Amino acid sequence: MSGPEWAIAVLVVVLAVVAGFALVLLVRLVRTRRMLRRAGVPVENTLAFWGALLYVISPVDLLPDPVYLDDIGVLLLGLRALHAAAERSGLRKGGSARDG
């Protein structure tokens, strides 16, 4: 294999791996959405979570991309709002959601 074919093969493999990860993430997000709907978590808190998730994957950033502190901070705020709403709705009571 010469240079261009090798580079194209590597690019195809990388794109296939990224597409696989994106598919797994999409399935997990759909499952999370269903769980939140069944749990009765208020819409405001689910919107905060999904808004934070959109901010993390969007190309618009407060800080340049090599510094992920703004992305992590926004996602943590969204998760904190979701966690508090889950506790208020009775989904989580003093332990993990799997404690049952």
From TrEMBL:
It is found in: Endomembrane system. Keywords: Membrane, Transmembrane, Transmembrane helix. The chain crosses the membrane at residues 6-27. It is a multi-pass membrane protein. GO terms for cellular component: endomembrane system. Pfam families: DUF1232 (PF06803). Residues 47-77 form the DUF1232 domain. Its main location: membrane. This is DUF1232 domain-containing protein. It comes from Streptomyces indicus.
